[in-house]
Amino acid sequence: MYVAVAGNIGAGKSSLTRILAEYFGWGPFFESVDDNPYLADFYADMPRWSFNLQVYFLSSRFRHQKDIEREPISVVQDRSIYEDVEIFARNLHYMGLMDSRDYENYAALFAIMTAYLRPPDLLVYLRASVPTLVRQIQSRGRDFENGIRLDYLERLNGLYEDWIERYPHPKMVIETDTLDFVNEPEDRFQILSRVESRLYGLFPEPAASGAEMGKGDQG
Ligand SMILES: Nc1ncnc2c1ncn2[C@@H]1O[C@H](COP(=O)(O)OP(=O)(O)OP(=O)(O)O)[C@@H](O)[C@H]1O
Ligand SMILES: Nc1nc(=O)c2ncn([C@H]3C[C@H](O)[C@@H](CO)O3)c2[nH]1
């Protein structure tokens, strides 16, 4: 089983990845943030660092994908590789923060590298409004994200909506504005049951050994 959690900056992907991994006993794959050599520079000067950052994320996520394909156990991934090009790089190009030459170069590299990747068995998209994203980004308190502009988040949200509509593989959408699955056990239970039912619909065998609703750690 390979599940990916998708969503805008601060939507709650890492938190949900941790919760799913713990509950189902899956291996978690988190995106690299603390050891990312470009992220802080990127937020300080997007036009200068956008191409470098996209190539870094592409190589790091591609390595994860290959590791995931080799994993003997089920895994859950914090953000899918598809979001790099469909959401972030496209947005940087639209906003004039990555020029056409770099964008086309990056998109061609992305297409070559990802052509043979296996898509997730289920993609869980966390939908969150911009006020929720801002609140959650602030609550996490990464200094270099303080300058993220509202129009940047709004455009990313718009691209997420277009993409999730077109996304051709199994998916589910979770509205997170009124669900605090980090702090509220009932909300967490609600999400876990929805994911479990969706997986059961796709794969009528149990989603994970030892993880029956009502028996896991709900909180
Ligand atoms: N549904 C929620 N309700 C309340 N707080 C939440 C919720 N989801 C996440 N949070 C909080 O918001 C902050 C950001 O969450 P998290 O790091 O999981 O987001 P993310 O989507 O992984 O972000 P990024 O895109 O930057 O990696 C954390 O402090 C987390 O505890
Ligand atoms: N430009 C850009 N392209 C990406 O592919 C990408 N993936 C993640 N991020 C940013 C969002 C969070 O600040 C932080 C952690 O998710 O990294 C990205 N930024």
From TrEMBL:
Domain of life of the organism encoding this protein: Bacteria
Q: A Pfam family matched by this chain, by name?
A: dNK
**Keywords carried by this UniProt record:** ATP-binding, Kinase, Nucleotide-binding, Transferase
**Where would I find the Deoxynucleoside kinase domain in this sequence?**
4-197
ATP-binding is among the record's keywords: yes
- Binding-site positions, ATP: 7-15, 179-181
Which residues take part in binding substrate? 31, 43, 54, 79, 84, 145
Residues annotated as catalytic: 78 (proton acceptor)
Q: Name one GO molecular function term.
A: ATP binding
Q: Which GO terms describe its cellular component?
A: cytoplasm
Q: Does the keyword Isomerase apply?
A: no
Question: Which family does the UniProt entry place this protein in?
Answer: Belongs to the DCK/DGK family.
The protein's name in its UniProt record: Deoxynucleoside kinase
Natural source organism: Rubricoccus marinus
